[in-house]
Amino acid sequence: MGAATGAGRVDDTARRFPRQSAAVVVFGTWMIVGLFLDGWSHNHQRPETFFTPWHGVLYSGFLVGVAWFWLEQRSAHAEPGLVGGRLTGVGFTIFAAAAVGDFVWHTLFGIERNIAALLSPTHLLLMTGGLLLVTAPVRDAWARPSRAAGWRELWPVVGSLTLTVALVLFFLQYLSAFRSVVVAQPAGTSFRYFVETAEIRTISSVLVTNAVLMGAVLFTIRRWRPPPGAFTVLFTMTAVAMSGLDSFGRLPLALCAVTGGLVADVLVLGRSPTRVIAGVTPAVLWLSYFVVFKLAYNLPWTIHLWLGTVLLASLSGLGLSLLSAPPAMPDRAELSP
């Protein structure tokens, strides 16, 4: 009796929600597109009100998604519950409450500008709710016993992770290696303070962007054997989206993400050890990045700076791999005196 109950719980946990997972990716993409359009609008000083076309894209994606899920739950073939479990419902609630709160916040305190827009409490709540929503396919797939590698099974996971990384990087855009205003280098100034500040900002942006991208890679390979091209899609889509916040001012730097994604895909396909993936992928990604930066935009850095930043990114990838896949613990017998 107990065994049957346990098996029932496993079956229930591993229940598939293919239609719902696909819907989350579709409506999540709709919302993220609206978010990035809104970010582009902020960065280009467009008229600032709550009722903008960009907010319309963002919130219409949410409302249409809510309507679809409501109709899905009422249909005859629907599976009970929501994909991703209770956290998905929590995400719906937080996002809806934050959307109403955002209107009230803007009415009371006005429209945020620049970095303040990314740190507004209501905007951070929207981010939290959005993260719980777009990660629903990942939570669903994580609960299944399968480690399937095909696109047919895992495309919602790849789409979900891509949306998640894009959302995280959007709210860290003041430290994004793919934004032209962040990695801009001062020219014609004799003040060493301004030069060093620009250098520190670029180095920090590389390390932060690297941590988010490699975190997604290491998280994925800990659980699945992703299909070929998964990381190329993830790296490229998120980098190009970030570049779009500045009207693709330095798109070649974002396209360097293709090399990092390709290397990660090749290493994963070849079943390379986690440490190799974690160390080599950042090295290739940021080496190509700085080569393009140097040749196309005349980066005024010495080799010590840009090559050292590449090495630091590689080492930080290795450090993250120790957290995602720590060394095995010794047997109890080996620990005994």
Kindly describe this structure.
The protein is built from 15 helices and no strands. The protein is mostly helical and 337 residues long. Helix 8 packs antiparallel against helix 9 (192-223), helix 8 runs parallel beside helix 10 and helix 10 packs antiparallel against helix 12. The chain is globular.
Task: Give the uncertain stretches in residue-range form.
Answer: 1-15
User: What is the typical, i.e. mean, pLDDT?
Assistant: 87
Q: What gap, in angstroms, lies between the N and C termini?
A: 42 Å
Count of β-strands: 0
Order of SSEs: HHHHHHHHHHHHHHH
Rg estimate, integer Å: 22 Å
Kindly list the characteristics that best describe this protein.
single chain; 337 residues; mainly alpha; 15 helices; 0% strand; globular
Describe what is shown at a glance.
This protein is an all-alpha fold and 337 residues long. Helices cover 73% and strands 0% of the residues.
Topology:
Elements: H1 2-13, H2 18-43, H3 53-74, H4 86-109, H5 116-119, H6 121-134, H7 136-142, H8 151-171, H9 192-223, H10 230-244, H11 251-255, H12 257-269, H13 274-297, H14 303-324, H15 332-335
Helix pairs in contact: 2-3, 2-8, 4-6, 6-8, 7-8, 8-9, 8-10, 9-13, 9-14, 10-12, 12-13, 13-14
